[in-house]
Specification:
Layout: E1 8-11, H1 17-28, E2 32-37, H2 40-54, E3 57-62, H3 68-76, E4 87-90, H4 106-134, E5 137-142, H5 155-175, E6 180-187, E7 190-191, H6 195-199, E8 216-217, H7 218-230, E9 239-242, E10 247-249, E11 252-253
Parallel strand pairs: 1-2, 1-4, 2-3, 4-5, 5-6, 6-9, 7-8
Antiparallel strand pairs: 10-11
The chain binds NADPH dihydro-nicotinamide-adenine-dinucleotide phosphate and 2-hydroxyethylsulfonic acid.
NADPH dihydro-nicotinamide-adenine-dinucleotide phosphate (NDP) binds near residues 187 and 193.
């Protein structure tokens, strides 16, 4: 990267988990960062930390990706020298609940669809025209192994991630002729995130889903996102499906205990 003109990366859902870990690795590598999420205080905390540690240049923009008007207003009013976004990481997303379809919670369904599908579309719709105009850009969507293989009671979450996979593929068809790369990363279970706590509405017992196996860590996924983004312009990694070694599929997890020393790197 040209150090005089560092690239700008916009990360949605940068307040925790994979998004926060991704912010860290891009900051470390000299990118300018636009960090978004709903929790202003978390954004400020992360901005201060990364500025202090890496002298990173960071803009925080607080909005809910489900609110189309907020997405449009906030992204249209970025300061002039922050408008030319080079990389968009569509990471904001969540699961709510884990129930068979006949017991599904309407609010959970709507939250997942509005966030994971419509939110991703709203942000992409606002950021991609500038990329088309400039003839370059890279969009990296956070899919999931749930976007490739369903599991019992995962119905609507999986449907939103299958939708992300479809959008990644179709966005690529729409945009590749303008020099824009579209990629996705599809992880299995990832700890050091708020994913399980959010899914189970803060219930600490139900959220203890990683006690008996080693899932991925948020840092592992962030490193892959960075690797995808750092390939030369002529290379586009279309999808990376990645799981911890104790997971062989969404329905196959070796829960016989945590076998690996995850502190080893
Ligand atoms: P976290 O809960 O730690 O992070 C989710 C992020 O999304 C937070 O920063 C949250 O910020 C943001 N977010 C959620 N809803 C909204 C909203 N309406 N508007 C704006 N931001 C929002 O979970 P992960 O880091 O695990 O999740 C990141 C992505 O990775 C998601 O798309 C998830 O589906 C995907 N994923 C996660 C896996 C896992 O096992 N953890 C595995 C595979 C994929 P805030 O609350 O401040 O708005
Ligand atoms: C998150 C992983 O298996 O909980 O996408 O759906 S899973």
């Amino acid at each position: 990267m040209d150090k005089a003109y560092p690239k700008i990366v916009l990360i949605t859902g940068a307040t925790s988990g994979i998004g926060a870990a991704t912010a860290k690795i891009f900051a470390k590598n000299g990118f300018r960062l636009i960090l978004t999420g709903r929790r202003q205080e978390k954004l400020e905390e992360i901005k201060s930390r990364l500025e202090f540690k890496y002298a990173a240049r960071i803009l925080i923009v607080c909005f809910d990706v489900r609110n189309r008007q907020a997405v449009q207003t906030k992204l249209a009013s970025l300061p002039e020298d922050w408008k030319n976004i080079d990389i968009l990481v569509n990471n904001a997303g969540l699961a709510k609940g884990l129930a068979p379809v006949h017991e599904g919670n309407y609010e959970h369904w709507e939250t997942m669809i509005d966030t994971n599908v419509k939110g991703l579309l709203y942000v992409t719709r606002e950021v991609s025209p500038g990329m088309v105009e400039r003839g370059r850009g890279h969009i990296i969507n956070l899919c999931s192994t749930a976007g490739h293989e369903v599991y019992p009671n995962g119905n609507v979450y999986a449907a939103t991630k299958f939708a992300v996979d479809a959008l990644t593929q179709s966005m690529r068809l729409d945009l590749y002729k303008y020099g824009i790369r579209v990629s996705q990363v599809s992880p299995g279970h990832v700890e050091e995130t708020e994913f399980a706590v959010v899914r189970f509405d803060g219930d600490p017992n139900r959220a203890r889903i990683y006690d008996d196996f080693n899932p991925l860590r948020s840092k592992d996924v962030a490193e892959i996102i960075y690797f995808v983004a750092a390939r030369p312009q002529y290379v586009n990694i279309q999808d990376v499906i990645v799981m911890g070694s104790q997971q062989a599929g969404n329905n196959h997890i070796d829960r016989s205990g945590r076998k690996y020393d995850t502190k080893e790197k």
